[in-house]
Specification:
- By secondary structure, this protein is of the alpha/beta class.
- The chain folds into two domains: 17-220, Alpha-Beta Complex (inorganic pyrophosphatase (n-terminal core)); 226-345, Roll (Diaminopimelate Epimerase, Chain A, domain 1).
- Helix content is 40%, strand content 17%.
- The chain has twelve helices and twelve strands.
- The protein has a six-stranded parallel sheet with strand order 3-2-1-4-5-6, with helices on both faces. A six-stranded mixed sheet has the order 7-8-9-10-12-11, sandwiched between helices.
- A hairpin with a 4-residue loop joins strand 9 (282-288) and strand 10 (293-299).
- The chain starts with 16 loop residues before the first helix and ends with a helix.
- The chain binds manganese (II) ion (MN).
- The site of manganese (II) ion has 6 residues, from loops.
- Manganese (II) ion binds at residues 43, 105, 131, 150-151, 186.
């Protein structure tokens, strides 16, 4: 298998000019393949399915191919049953034959783990719509706004520009449900710093077209199986703190997951619990998986956990970041996080 390296993107067009470039690409083509990052979440899927519904109203054909499956709690989203989990043999042609590949909520092909080769070999025009830092050079157009609360917010901005252009209304109830889900999940239920009044105005319009906030919340968050609660109980009982209680670390060993018959999907939302402890400024979850260690980091204020994630080859935002490692042991990862965070907390 070929490996690709992607140089950092030097000149990122100021938002929204990149959005105009995407609108131009959409206008000139008819068939689209939308993809998004590994381990789908509310924003990646909400953006993807919202954009799918938008493009179909414009008469485009759309296929969705992702590196990972749709988590059970997001299967209520419209069209989520159409998402293909990438199978190189079956789906390479889908990517090769599309006019355009739209990459959402990720700005490097490496985020589409296992799909890099199919993406890079495809002659399709590539465009990125995203809100993460440090994009790499591989696409023709980049609509990136790192100030946006979510990719779903950017899909909404795309939608309103098309509404202005066409003098039509494109925000249907199912489309609004998809975007609402993306915004709700990526803002931590409307509480993270980028939850601006503009974000609330988008949400207001979603409610105006029929979105029921409690239905979305209940679908996304109130569907946990008992084994997840048991795993959460075990991890809460074993919380560790360092740097005078300013770093809180949650450890999930393979044995704990085996005992509770859980998998990586069940860890969604765990790390947020670390910040609930009085005095904690940074939280981490370190999860031991069969072939790698998964790390998620959260912080308050200006503590840049994306820098710590970057040490392990990952990334994200100042207050929320993640990474994986195959080269360090469970214990080495814990020690490294304690050491790297000392710069900010000790
Ligand atoms: Mn996002």
């Amino acid at each position: 298998m070929q490996t690709y390296s992607f140089p950092p993107l030097k000149a990122l067009p100021a938002f929204p000019s990149g959005l105009d470039a995407c609108i131009d690409i959409i206008a000139r083509h008819t068939s689209f393949c939308i993809t998004t990052h590994v381990n789908s979440d509310g924003d990646s899927l909400g953006s993807q399915l919202g954009l799918t519904l938008l493009l179909r109203q414009l008469g485009k054909t759309v296929q969705n191919v992702n590196p990972s499956h749709v988590p059970e709690n997001l299967r209520f989203l419209p069209c989520s049953d159409e998402v293909l989990v990438f199978d190189a043999e079956r789906d390479t042609s889908v990517l090769a034959e599309a006019d355009v590949i739209l990459v959402l909520d990720g700005n490097s092909p490496s985020r589409m783990r296992g799909m890099e080769e199919a993406i890079m070999r495809s002659p399709a025009v590539k465009a990125v719509i995203d809100h993460h830092q440090e994009p790499v050079e591989f696409a023709r157009a980049y609509a990136i706004d790192t100030e946006a609360c979510s990719t779903a917010e950017l899909i909404y901005r795309l939608l309103t520009r098309l509404e202005e252009r066409d003098g039509k209304t494109y925000l249907t109830k199912p489309l609004a449900e998809a975007l609402y889900t993306g915004i709700m999940t990526d803002t931590g239920n409307f509480r993270f710093p980028r939850t601006t009044s503009d974000v609330h105005r988008i949400i207001a319009r979603c409610i105006d077209v029929g979105v029921e906030p409690y239905y979305i919340f209940d679908s996304v968050f109130n569907q946990n199986p008992m084994n997840r609660s048991r795993l959460l109980g075990l991890t809460l009982a074993n919380l560790q703190t360092y740097h005078n209680g300013k770093l809180c670390m949650m450890l999930v060993s393979e044995a704990m997951m085996r005992e509770t018959e859980t998998n990586v999907d069940h860890l969604e939302g765990f790390v947020e619990q670390t910040l609930g402890l009085r005095g904690v400024q940074m939280g981490a979850i370190v999860a031991e998986m069969p072939d790698e260690i998964k790390i998620s980091l959260r912080s308050k204020g200006s503590l840049p956990v994306n820098k710590i994630a970057g040490f392990f080859g990952g990334g994200g935002h100042i207050n929320a970041a993640g990474c994986r490692t195959k080269t360090m042991s469970f214990r080495e990862v814990q020690e490294t996080i304690v050491r790297l965070s000392a710069e900010y907390l000790a």
